[in-house]
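Pasting as-is:
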Amino acid sequence: MHVLLGIETFGLIGGSERYALALAAELAERRHEVAVLCAKRESGDAATQTFVHAAFADDRASEAELAPLVADVRAFAPDVVLHLSGRARAPFRALLGASTRLVRFVQDHTLFCPSLNKLHADASPCTRPMGFECVKRYYTGGGCFGFRRELHRSAFDGLGGVLKQRGALADARRAARLLVASNYMRRELVAVGCEPERVDVVPYFTRSASTSLPPHEPDLATRDFVLGAREPLLFTPARLALPDKGVDFLLTALAKSRAPFRAVIAGSGPAEEWLRAKAREEGLAERVHFAGWQSAGAIEWLYARSAVVAFPSVWDEPFGLVGIEAMAHAKPVIAFDVGGVREWLVEGATGFAVARRDTDAFARALERVLGDSALSARLGRAARERVETEFRPARHLERLEAVLARA
């Protein structure tokens, strides 16, 4: 099968891009002819055919500017186009015109939420489908986290934003199939009018704890912090952003925990300095190490040496790749019960999911796992078994190929 993958940036940036890199390699291994259409290339197998067009990320690209992109798509003659990410409507419409066999992978909330993350201005979760309620909140209720009046110059931007978002959703509904990684995301799409029979669920896969992802040591400071600790290691890979990733709630929970531990938080982001200050204020400066951005190999090294992995997101995660990566290493996961988390975390069997923002319950769950080595080992074994059964590349590709064939 000739498969064209569309993604704005082909490189190791976030979850969508990591998935694209791994998927291109896995499809090629299964003897599919794979090419990538992107606006920018930063990494990836040099052998992967890549069409780089800046217009692919340009919402205002003209027909003339998109013509070379369309020409490359038609020259490659894909059996199916799998659109993995991109908010720009103009290039998406161009793809719809170039191929009637287009599958849109909806990986996050940006297609059906003008705030982009389903969070109100006070960071509480939004449970309503996009529509009039969004406009009403914008003008009379304080708006949403990324969609409120003080962020815009014109009073008409609220209505215009919702109309633009609904237009993007209408474009996506023209795709042959819509693809999501969790039943949570499927319910969100159905709630905004997508036809249930055209929305397929294909959970992500992980190559963690396999020969495909060899580990290597992190930077010297992180290595010494880990190897010099006698306490069990808690590990959290997360972007340091507020309010969605919940690292602030994790720090509060750690301060409440009575179990001995050392914690490594790997990631960077705009809230890093604030979170470092919070860790000091909570009395955690000696026990929590902020490792900054780490490579995939270093993350593998850290997973392997951890006793438990904390996944503290407080927004409705579309899936949560960190969960299955940790489980592949036979590590129990403690998480807040949000979004698609329960689709990989089996309560009491592979970890524990507690109520959103309940730091007392999070601390108790950590104490329970860190204080009981037999329980931790049992949870870890079940976690790895679940990954081997449900979340390895072969299982994912079987499901994905069936969707692509239907398209």
